[in-house]
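so my prof wants the structure for this chain in the tokens format not the other one, which i didnt know existed until like an hour ago. anyway here's the sequence
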Amino acid sequence: MKSYITVKDILSRKHFESSRVIAGQEGLHRQVKWVHVVEVTNIRNLLNGNELILSTGVAWKDNKDHFISVVEQLIESQAAGICIEIGTYTSWIPQEVIEIANTSQFPIILFLKQVPFVEITQDIHGLLINRQYQMISDLESYSQALNKRLLTIDNYVEILKFIRSYLQVQVMILFNNKEVQFIPEITEKEKRKLLEIIELDLATLPSYAKVPIQLLGDTYAQLVIVSEERELTEFDQLILDRTATAVAQLFLRELYVEEKQRVEATEWINGWLEGEQDEESISEYLVAHSTTKKAKGAVVCICKLDSNTAYPNSDLTYFKLYVRAIFEQQGFSLFTIEKRNSIVFIILNERKSSTWKKRMQEGIQRLLESELHLGNERAKPVIGVGKYVEELTHIYKSYQTAVETIRIQDRMSNQADSYFYDDLHIFRLISQLNRHIDLQEIVLEYLEPVITYDKKYNGKLMETLKTYLACNGSKQETAKRLYIVRQTLYHRIQKLEKLLGTDFMNHEKRLAIEFMILSFEFLVSSKQLKEKEQVF
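here's what i got, hopefully its the right format
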């Protein structure tokens, strides 16, 4: 399983039979990643770390200061050690160099007789390459064994025990809710010590490594390994990465099963949305299917999908899981049901009622900005949020208003500003009127002259009228917003007075015109104006 080579390992090779360690004995555990022959004094920028240096000493021949400089540069560059051939150019090692090496646990090895550097580099490089191949083979074997276990286990602890037994390290998993699991169990003092290392995020420690467990685009937990016996290597990190992926797959499988079970509750939730469940029945259901002790209120959110697209069941399930993950972080718990081309979420509030809307807005924004795909397209549902209700038996009211919100959303050109029923204000009234009277006829009664004029002359009178009303009759502000000169504005206002009457800014008539402009935009967005009467 050992995937790395140390200086001590190399000392057992045949070309090191006549070698002797004269300094840095405690650094023989240093990892060797490559071998270099160095015969220059300025080497600081030539190394990447963990190189074993071979040298005859010709670069610092009879110059102690140069020798000291070379050793200090090697130590600074995290070299594994230096092997020096004694005899040809170097016959002794200054005591100062030995002391520096001992202090830094930097091995200095002497070849007591001439050795072939070419054969040494070939031998060690071959050893390193073979070890890399072995590491890949070991990693593949580990992955296969791990995948077999995933088919039979149902608890992530079994996976943690597996990596523990394989690497012989301390394993920890830290969940976002601050829960921590240690494999194997250790004393409270040891736990505090390890948690301090993690809190300080001392990733530079050679005996510490961590990797996030990603679930549906978010970090669900952190998987950590620590060793007090040895330095962690690239192989350890690769094993850690594979294990984190396996744990994520297990968690996702558990969430998927939970989601499937929730789907089985569809009939009951349908009754809840229709107002058929009483308080006792709702309480019993929450006890059995939710961790929520007592909801502080609830709201229904509908995500309407493209009715012309057939979405795979797996995509819909992952979409619901993703929505759940987002809103649970915002302090909500969810019940889900699919109704025709929509997904309906009953969202229970677990935090202050005064902040529910802000948290909902943040969750919706995050959902719409995500890269989540449904079918072949990014998820872009039409979203409608109903009235917030304090009593869970009144969920049907929130559902009805969420349906109305979706109905209005379908008829509005700018949906992004109106996810909430409470924010639709006058559009709720317009929608109700449109279902019961011929709203188009009333709109044309007030605005037909302006609509006809714009269609015939491209006069932009409707835009001017809307802006003029929004600026409360301020000509200066209206001209500024429309980016036109005042003379042009005066001409347009005169034309509006001719078409609508000089009294169109009087209070009652102005209110009616403003309402008709909004109704006109509503009808245009919903494409409800009849072709034969369409005048724009």
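also thought this was worth mentioning. The longest strand covers residues 218-226.
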